[in-house]
């Protein structure tokens, strides 16, 4: 029986290994993590992450050929294939701070693999890493190998949170990069055989190591670029009276462009887009390509501009002051169908509103009060640390109250900001909400999910990103 071990039981490692176990009953899969509460959660009825369909997959396999353990060294030593899916945050100090990936956890994992291994192993990069990371990891493993052979493969994930299980069941492609040596090709085929249990062979792409590593960064950069492009157009649409939804629909009909990732919003989020683009910028700078670096940097700058623009619109619309005013925040996760808040635009928007002394009442169906307080009170460098190295309990922000009901969030509020496109926000009883709010009552739709005309008929003053402005808003400056 082939044995697979995955180091890291997070958003990538957990779901990926669960699907491999389901589709490959002849393979034993163990997911290991040093953070014990996470392992306890994976072995319980309340998994540590929310992902549609994940519960069913885990329940079908757990205890049969899928296991979760904190005994990292034992299972790494026993495995034939070791996936490494640890955090690679952006460096906050030293060379490349603010752009380069911090490979501290990756290097630590590599040294541990070399230390405990007694048999030959295939080591698979599952984390998003800079180009040439495999070469560095290879050096660490070979210099500490004690005669054991290691083959390094790059197998980047292309999952979209909220549809991760569907993506794993039916991937567009599986990418495997390895050395162009007989041993490297043998390792590629070993991993290809795992995925071939359910993925058509023509969708399994085999490349060299560097192409696989760069393809992941490039894919995320291209997706983020599309979002920033349509968000840049949304600002122009508001200035000219055009409707960004109509513009998106028109250009999306061009088969060369396509319709995906053309929804204007308050900005992109998630653990990968910003981190990977910063990484790409750093790699370009290190390779003497400042013009290329500057091009990709602009994608992030437009994303920051969109969040700032949204906050300015809220403040300027409400008589240029929100001090002491209650504002309801509907949605905190970076997208619907996930509880993940990493780099969510809601953090930037909420901090901007708090900076103007607003009182926030926040509701998200999948994000806990503790997580919201952590995100708003802690620095990004603290949030990027493993859970066991983070402060035990976040400092509560007095201006922030978390509730478990959209109606409660909006009660007595001056305005509502919709920051996540949860389906339930489309079907709320907005008449009931309006009746319980201060007047004039504002809705600032950062995801274009509400029927603005219906809300205006009720009496709301409505701002939707990239749409023709309400007559009230036309009289207000766009920048506070």
Automatic annotation (TrEMBL):
Q: Which reaction does it catalyse?
A: UDP-alpha-D-glucose + 2 NAD(+) + H2O = UDP-alpha-D-glucuronate + 2 NADH + 3 H(+)
Q: Which domain of life is it from?
A: Eukaryota
Looking at the keywords, is Transmembrane present? no
Q: Name one GO cellular component term.
A: nucleus
Keywords on record: NAD, Oxidoreductase
Active site annotation, chain numbering: 272
Signal peptide start-end:
none
One Pfam family here: UDPG_MGDP_dh_N
What does the record give as its pathway? Nucleotide-sugar biosynthesis; UDP-alpha-D-glucuronate biosynthesis; UDP-alpha-D-glucuronate from UDP-alpha-D-glucose: step 1/1
The protein, known as: UDP-glucose 6-dehydrogenase
Q: Which organism is it from?
A: Salix dunnii
Lineage, broadest ranks: Eukaryota, Viridiplantae, Streptophyta, Embryophyta, Tracheophyta
